[in-house]
## 1
Amino acid sequence: MHSDKASSCVASELSPNVLALEAALRARIGNRVRRHEPMARHTPLGVGGPADLWMAAAALDELITAVQLARQHHCPVLLMGSGANLLVSDRGVRGLVIQNRCEGTTFFMHDEPSVLALSGTHLASLARMAARHGLSGLEWAVGVPGTLGGAVVNNAGAFGSCIADCLMRAELFTPDGERVWQPTTWFEYGYRSSRLKCIPAGSLDSFVVLRAELGLKRASQSEIEDRMARFNAQRQRTQPDGASLGSMFKNPPGDYAGRLIEAAGLKGRQIGGARISEHHANFFLNVGQACAADFAALIELARETVRAKFGVEMELEIQRVGEWE
Ligand SMILES: Cc1cc2nc3c(=O)[nH]c(=O)nc-3n(C[C@H](O)[C@H](O)[C@H](O)COP(=O)(O)OP(=O)(O)OC[C@H]3O[C@@H](n4cnc5c(N)ncnc54)[C@H](O)[C@@H]3O)c2cc1C
């Protein structure tokens, strides 16, 4: 779903730094770099204004080169996986947006099996590949949209498990321009949080997740597939269809964001084209031509109403990126 409202945002003038970056990128990757690309085309929610520059990277060398060039030109660079956790502003994103399409996996069937995967690999595909190898540990991920890189940053999880449970190490491209492997402890994981998620997306201090190795356990393929089928069925029962970002807010300690929003009487509330699902109140849907401002207004309404009625401060699970007022 694309929002014409979002796409029709007036594109801003490109700064001299961005123009120089565009020329440098074109010299390396040709016409695949696009100017004023509507982000609504590249986010599952279907909202988001123009990125100054946008490109997709399908190989690690290309990804690293693009990040290096952006840093050399002092341009912010936002690395996206699938955008499944991103609310991109209607004004769009200044600098360069790179969509990570670097995919690839190697399974090591040692006594302690593992899989090494490029960060643009889709997490759900990785879970299905692991099942075909008779490897357990990623069943929870079969219905989670997005890439391995996004999951490493967000500590994605479901059904009581998360990426921190199986991550052994990840290779990062650092702000200093080095490739470094870091163990799981380095990431300081918490509930849907990590030390990488604390760094503002797009900032010049950002790390890039290049690859990750996950430890898995041998199990029978049919048992693994049964568990996946049960998790998928539970998702279908409890979560709405339609364009969303999954859970909008984190669950506050001892409670559920969806329960609080529902108890605040907000199920079905709509602003513009954004609506709080009647099926699950922590899912906010694009029901047609929504723009990012509609979602931002609905987020504030939910946050303020829950605070006023129950005294609970809800923290966003999703990330707002781009240029906001
Ligand atoms: C229908 C639906 C259901 C969902 N269910 C769940 C669920 O059950 N559990 C759950 O945890 N989440 C869930 N989500 C949210 C989403 O799937 C996860 O947050 C996922 O990990 C996002 O991955 P992504 O690749 O799309 O990351 P993006 O949304 O593109 O990016 C997220 C963050 O990671 C950064 N990033 C991405 N890739 C890299 C990289 N290679 N290096 C450095 N930084 C990077 C981005 O800059 C950004 O800060 C759901 C979303 C939807 C739409």
## 2
Amino acid sequence: MADLEQALSFGTAAATYDRFRPAYPLTALTWAVDAPAPVEAVDLAAGTGILTRQLLGLGHRVVPVEPDPGMRAQLDLATPGTTALAGSAESMPLPDGVADVVMTGQAYHWFDRERAHAEVARVLRPGGRFAPIWNSRDESVPWVAELSRLLANFAGRSSVDTAPDLTSFGEWFEPLERAEFTHATRHTADTLVGLVGTRSYYLTASPQRRRELESAVRDLATNHPDLAGLESFELPYRTTAYRARRV
Ligand SMILES: C[S@@+](CC[C@H](N)C(=O)[O-])C[C@H]1O[C@@H](n2cnc3c(N)ncnc32)[C@H](O)[C@@H]1O
């Protein structure tokens, strides 16, 4: 499966994506921005605007940039007063030095890193911050570990949906800092199936394979000893945030 096909698969399920994907803990966003509101923020790979709306809610001015037209349409619909710009991490339609912070949620792993580092550095003012962030399921919880095993088997990888270990954003940035936060979202069996349906490896699978995965996830949510008999339950997350200052 080509990485590009997976990277650009999300727009086919934009409304579902917006409904089921988790937001980020506000403490993590405050840590990442590291300056009092309002700052000039770019939400890079903004998707349907989950992070955009949270940054707006914190009082920042936000320009969302997103390559997928389906995701941009959903963002515009769900974020009155905001229009997403067509662009990518490798090429943003923005002047030099305009942003105090460039944040990116659940997306840095899709970028051509060398080109993205140079482009983010161009858009940031000196001293501005680049801050990628990820929600990852907390696999220390047994049923969550089981869910992750099931998803990794489906995707044909040893693990899925985990934050990468990053060491540098290249020559334009000071050493990066990392912090972890926790939060949780409430689910039913139906919404857990809905959430899995927003993953790139699901979106690029055949209808038959999709049905197999949906049925396995529903079975887990209904019969795992931690969840059996519960109408709803919490899915715990660890949120990993990085930040680095532009030199
Ligand atoms: C998992 S979604 C994350 C969306 C949003 N940031 C969030 O937190 O919900 C990944 C997004 O990255 C976008 N994307 C993929 N490759 C990209 C690239 N090279 N530059 C910018 N965005 C990209 C996809 O179109 C998709 O909207």
